[in-house]
Amino acid sequence: MTSALALVRSQPSQYAVAAVAGRKYLLAPRDLLTVPRLNDVAVGDVLELDNVHELGSREYTLRGAPHLSPDVVKITATVVEHTKGQMEFIVKKKRRKGYKKTIQHKQTYTRLRVGPFEFPQ
After folding, report:
1. 72 in a domain, yes or no?
2. Which superkingdom does the taxonomy of this entry point to (predicted)?
């Protein structure tokens, strides 16, 4: 595994597949990631993404079963902002009954800036 990790590390650009808030995302360093609202974090907090499923580059891939251990790769993400999506309109209607109702809402999101991938070894 250490030789495979050295091959991935030697490549000019890497990617990772990590789970954030229960969903898997394809990440690269310095990406801006939008996830469903994380209520227990504040703007400026640094999160450690320890649930990494795959680490790779253009020519090599390192997969975990089901995820890689935290001593292989360390990925951090900084909370940039809490925001809302665009206004969504949901229309409910009953045919021939004169009933029509419009519901409006905005979905809440948290935006994360992915930091550089660190290889502790």
Report:
1. yes
2. Eukaryota
